[in-house]
Amino acid sequence: MLVVQKYGGTSVGDLERIRNVARRIARYKEEGHDVVVVVSAMAGETDRLLNLAHELVEEPSPRELDMLVATGEQVSSALLAMALNAMGYPAKALVAFQIPIKTDELFGKARIRDIATDRMLEELKKGYILIIAGFQGITEGGDITTLGRGGSDTTAVAIAAALGADVCEIFTDVDGVYTADPRIVPKARKIKRISYDEMLELASMGAKVLEIRSVEFAKIYKVPVHVRSSFSDEPGTMVVEEDETMEKVLVSGVTYNRNEARISLYGVPDRPGVAAQIFGPIAEAGIVVDMIIQTGRPDGRADMTFTVPKTDFKKTLRLVEGLAEKLGLEKIEGAEEIAKVSIVGAGMRAHPGVAAKMFEVLAQHGINIHMISTSEIKISCVIDEKYTELAVRALHEAFGLDREPEEE
Amino acid sequence: MLVVQKYGGTSVGDLERIRNVARRIARYKEEGHDVVVVVSAMAGETDRLLNLAHELVEEPSPRELDMLVATGEQVSSALLAMALNAMGYPAKALVAFQIPIKTDELFGKARIRDIATDRMLEELKKGYILIIAGFQGITEGGDITTLGRGGSDTTAVAIAAALGADVCEIFTDVDGVYTADPRIVPKARKIKRISYDEMLELASMGAKVLEIRSVEFAKIYKVPVHVRSSFSDEPGTMVVEEDETMEKVLVSGVTYNRNEARISLYGVPDRPGVAAQIFGPIAEAGIVVDMIIQTGRPDGRADMTFTVPKTDFKKTLRLVEGLAEKLGLEKIEGAEEIAKVSIVGAGMRAHPGVAAKMFEVLAQHGINIHMISTSEIKISCVIDEKYTELAVRALHEAFGLDREPEEE
C-alpha cells in the first residue's frame, strides 16, 4: 500500500515529538507500506519567522517573505528524516524544488499547478521513506512560494493525488471530525465517514480540522482522506466520495460561528445596480461579506441584511452610513451579538423537510431566527448569540446525532 | 563597476545590523555600481541548527544536516533583500538552486564545481541588487550541500570569479590583516596589500580573517579581495596578485600557533617503509600531523620529531608507544608547552638570509629553537611556549614591521 501522511506543527512541535512521529512512520514501513510524509513547520516557527520579517520592515516583499517562511518546513522535514535515518530506516527529506511542486506566482497563497512524480517514485523504489516539506512550491521561474495557512494539508492531498496513493492520512491534534463541538455538546460523536461536500461545508463553517482547499483537491482527485490524531492509534474520520449509505443520514453535523456581526439596511431603492453600490466599497475595503438576504416590500423598496466578520463591524457600519443619504435609506441597524448555527448533511438532497424541522426545533426552544440561508447540503440560521449552545444541543439531539448511525 | 560583497554572521547578527548592511549596500547602488551580496547566517543561527540536530540524534545523516543548516543563510538573505526592497532598492534573494551553484556531493564540506551566471546577469540587467545565500550549493542531482565553516567567503570569491567582478569585498568584524596579532604586538600595523600566497600562509597559521579555500579560489581566478570591517568605512587589506613592490618587503607578517604539541622518536630504524608504519596509524585515527622532521644518525638509525594538535597529544603518544617494541625505538619523548612562530613574506623568494636573520633574532633573546620548517615564503620555528610573545615582538621589530613600508 502507498500511504501519504501529513503531520501538523503540533505533531512535530519538539524533538521528542519528532522522535514519536518517526516511530509511527517506522511502524508503517515495517508493515510493508511505502510511505510519503508531508510535514508542517514545528509549532510556533512560522509565526516566529513572520514576526522577524514584520519587525524588520512594515511590508515585507512577498517573494522574500515566502522564501523566509519556507525554511520552517525545510527544518522540520530535515529533522524528521534524520530521526528515521538514525533509527535505521533510510529516509530522504525533499523540498519543493527537488520534486518539483510547481505553483502559480501568487506569493503567500500560491496554488499548486503540477507535481512531478519521477523523483518520488524513483526514491520509493529504492526503499526510501520520503519526508516532504509541506506548505510550499516553486514557480516556473524557480521562485519559492507558499500555499498559505494550512497549506501542508493541501500539499499532502495533492501529493497523494499525484502518486495515486491508497490513502492520505492527516495527523493532527484532534482525533477526527465530530457531529458537533464536543465542548458544547458532550454527546457529540466522532463521524466515521463523511463526504467531501459535507466536509467542505463543515470546514468553511469553522470546524478547523482540514484546510478547505485540501478538501477541494481531495474531492477533485477522489483521494480518500483519513483525519486522525497523532497522539493515538484510534481511527479518525474518513473523508470520501459520497455513497448511498450517506444519503440515509439526514444530517451529519451541527456547527456554529460566533465571529460574525449583522448589518441591516431598510428602505433600499429596488433598482438595478444598488447592490453593487453597497457591496462595492465594502469589498474594496477588503471586508468579506458572508450571508446576504434581500426582501422586497410592497412600497417598491427593499430591506437588506448581511453579515461581516465582527472585527470589521464598525468599519462596515461607517461605510454604509456614508451611502445612506445617496441611496435614501430609511434606517441602518446592526447587531454584534449574533451567531450562525448550521446543519450539514448530504442526505438533505434526497429528503425534503429538513429545513422545516430545523426551524421547528429552534421555535420549540423559543429561539428567534433573524436570517436563513441554504445550500444543497447545508441550512444556516442566524440567531441571538446567547442561544448558541442551546440551539446546537437541541439540533444535535433532534436530528439523532447522539446515536451511532446504523451500519449497512 | 561590478562589486561582490560578503557580510559575515556578525554583520547581519540582528535586525538593526541587517538594516545597517542594507544602507551600506544602497550607498554602493547610489554610486552607480552593480552589487551582488553574499550573506552568512545570522550569528549563532548555524550553531543553533547544529545543536538541534545533535540533540535529536547522535549522528545526523549528512544530507539532511546540510539541508537543515542551509536554512540559516536562506533566512538572512531573504531578510536582507526585504530590508532593501522596503528602502526602495529592488533586491532579490537567491539560494543555491536558483542560480545554480553546483558542487560535488561531499555533504558538509562540498566544493564548488560550477556557477551559472545567466540568471544573475539577467537580474542585474533589470536593476536588481542580488542577495545570495552563502555557504551552500546543490549537487548535480539537486541535493542541498554546504561548503563547511567559513564557506560564505568561498561563495563570494567564486561568484566574483564567475561574474568577473571588479572586486570582492569581504566585510567582517576585523578591519583587515595585521602584521601580527595586535593583542601581542601593540605596534602591529594593518597591511594595505598582500599577495594571495602570503595570505594563504597567514590564514593557515591561524590569522582567521579569510577562509583558506576562498583565498585559493581568489588566487586561481585572480579575484582582487578586499578584507574590511562592516562597522566602519576605513579601507582594509587588499589581497591581490604578487607584484614587484611586494618583493621589496622581506617579511609581511609574524604569526604564532600555540595549539600544537611535539613528539620525538629516537632510534628509528632507517629503512624504507618506517615512516608509513608510524604515520599510517596516526592518520587512521584522524590525527592531523603538521611538521615532520627527520635526521639521520651515524649509527644508521634516525631521530624523528613531529607536531600534532595538543588535543590529540596523549592519543598520539599511546599510538607510537604501541609501535615502540616492533620498531625497536630507543626512546619516545614529547612536550605540550611549545609554540610555533612563523614569518611570512613573498620577498623571501628573492632575498637570501631571511632565515638566518630569524634564527639570530631568536638567539639574541635567548630563545632555543626545537624544530625548523620552511616553505618558499614562510619560515617556522618551534620554541618553548613561554617565549611566544617575546619571539613575536622581537621578530616584528627586527624585520621592520612596525614601520609603514615605502610606497613607490
TrEMBL record, chains A, B:
Catalytic reactions of this protein: L-aspartate + ATP = 4-phospho-L-aspartate + ADP
UniProt key word Amino-acid biosynthesis: yes
GO cellular component: cytosol
Residues annotated as domain ACT: 263-346
One Pfam entry name: ACT_9
Annotated positions binding ATP: 6-9, 172-173, 178, 183, 208-209
Highest taxon of the lineage: Bacteria
Alphabetical GO biological process terms: homoserine biosynthetic process; lysine biosynthetic process via diaminopimelate; threonine biosynthetic process
EC class of the enzyme, as a word: transferase
Annotated GO MF terms: aspartate kinase activity; ATP binding
Annotated signal sequence range: none
Pathways involved: Amino-acid biosynthesis; L-methionine biosynthesis via de novo pathway; L-homoserine from L-aspartate: step 1/3; Amino-acid biosynthesis; L-threonine biosynthesis; L-threonine from L-aspartate: step 1/5; Amino-acid biosynthesis; L-lysine biosynthesis via DAP pathway; (S)-tetrahydrodipicolinate from L-aspartate: step 1/4
Keywords from the named record: Amino-acid biosynthesis, ATP-binding, Kinase, Lysine biosynthesis, Nucleotide-binding, Transferase
InterPro entries, per database record: AceGlu_kinase-like_sf (IPR036393), ACT-like_dom_sf (IPR045865), ACT_Aspartokinase (IPR054352), ACT_dom (IPR002912), AKii-LysC-BS (IPR041740), Asp/Glu/Uridylate_kinase (IPR001048), Asp_kin_monofn (IPR005260), Asp_kinase (IPR001341)
Annotated binding of substrate, by residue: 46, 73
E.C. code: 2.7.2.4
Gene3D superfamilies: Acetylglutamate kinase-like, VC0802-like
Family per similarity comment: Belongs to the aspartokinase family.
UniProt name for this protein: Aspartokinase
Naturally occurring in which organism (per UniProt): Thermodesulfatator atlanticus
